[in-house]
Amino acid sequence: FLNYEEVFSEVAPYIKDGRTMVPLRVIAENLGTKVTWVSAEQPIEIKDNTKTITLKVGSNSAVRDGSSMTLDVAPEVSGGRTFVPLRFIIEALGAEVAWNNQTRTVFVFK
Fold it and tell me: Percentage helix, strand, coil, to 5, in the chain?
């Protein structure tokens, strides 16, 4: 959910090492960010009005506005789609995340 509105994805999110992985497109489309990515060998750049996050498939290192950060789980390609750890991306963009373990639902507040 984003601000209490349900978000749908063509591809189901999954949990990897305790982190919810979602298709990058879901974040880009629903949060109004711009994503620049050429191929798996190139960095992925996610921009909103105030922040820029740079990360790379297979790497636990990221940069937000010039500062280095570490991801618990690296972005990866699965089924031809790039998946990223939801909590990391949302919090790096300055939004809030809540997890309901009973319903296995993620709430994002921006």
Answer: 15, 45, 45
Residue 28 pLDDT level (bands cut at 50, 70, 90): confident
Tell me the percentage of the chain whose pLDDT exceeds 70: 98
Indicate yes or no: pTM above 0.70: yes
Q: 98: buried, middle or exposed (CB in 10 Å: 19+, 13-18, 0-12)?
A: exposed
What are the phi and psi torsion angles at 2 (to 5°)? Answer: -120, 115
